[in-house]
Amino acid sequence: MPKxxxxxxxxxxxxHIHAQLMSIISQTRQPDELVIVxxxxxxxxxxxxxxxxxxxxxxxxxxxxxxxxxxxxxFRQALSMANGDIIFLSDQDDVWMMSKIETIMAMFESHESxxxxxxxxxxxxxxxxxxxxxxxxxxxxxxxxxxxxRHDYWHLFHANVVQGAATAIRRELFDAAQPFPSAAFHDExxxxxxxxxxxxxxxxxxxxxxxxxxxxxxxxxxxVTGKIKKWLGNTREATAKNIGEIxxxxxxxxxxxxxxxxxxxxxxxxxxxxxLRITNERKESLTQKDKSLLLSASRYARAYxxxxxxxxxxxxxxxxxxx
Length: 323
Known about the structure:
Elements: E1 4-10, H1 17-25, E2 33-38, H2 45-52, E3 59-64, H3 71-81, E4 86-90, E5 95-96, H4 100-108, E6 116-124, E7 130-132, H5 145-149, H6 154-158, E8 167-170, H7 171-176, H8 186-197, E9 200-211, H9 224-233, H10 235-260, H11 266-287, H12 298-301, H13 306-322
Parallel strand pairs: 1-2, 1-4, 2-3, 6-9
Antiparallel strand pairs: 4-8, 5-9, 6-7, 6-8
Helix pairs in contact: 1-2, 9-10, 10-11, 10-13
């Protein structure tokens, strides 16, 4: 039977850490190991953690960083310390459904033998009241799990759709992903490497309650009008964010293509090439304030589905107009 680890990063999480840990150690299928790396908290996070886990029957590894190294580096550190065959990634402030580990392990143990499994989440407030029933539905465009089941990874090349807090991986995936590029978030890089070297399986059950009071990722979906109002409300910040993310994405995809592009099947390689082309063109256009790309919306349409093409084209128009 495969060994199961949970890798969690903490930082000033005293408010919710007890509830999260209790939801993990109360699973219908117990983890064998909990790895908790604290990023120099200044509150009672570690005291609460140690007390909560005092009667846990599995292995517990707790490390406290002497200084804060940041979320991304800390998660990579926690993953490197995990000894399990399957590693579940965990935030410090969510609550897991009791059958999460059992449900996800059944997918790992199926004949499809994926490298990475992830699931949907319910967005809640600090008191776990439902804000929105599906995290996948809040994405732009909404995530459709059938795409990944068909081995169609265009959405993954366009943007990160694999939420770390809802992800579990085989240990060999973490090893195969080394070294992590500086431009990559840990969850998106693991998903990209899994798409090249094996199989990703999405599960559409809601298996965690994902609190929004302390999370930077997530939030309620906005209408097109709402998105425009949000952009126009702080145009300078929105345009800088758009340029920064496109530049980061271009660096990430170029590194991914160099290291793993040849492992993709023909369809996904063509999709990646299209995404690389439009992302590099967008970066050049926005950083050089060159409006020529915007004169041909069809260039966006060749890389993205129609609604996504229009959405990205409009963002770039607003960005260039605001510069």
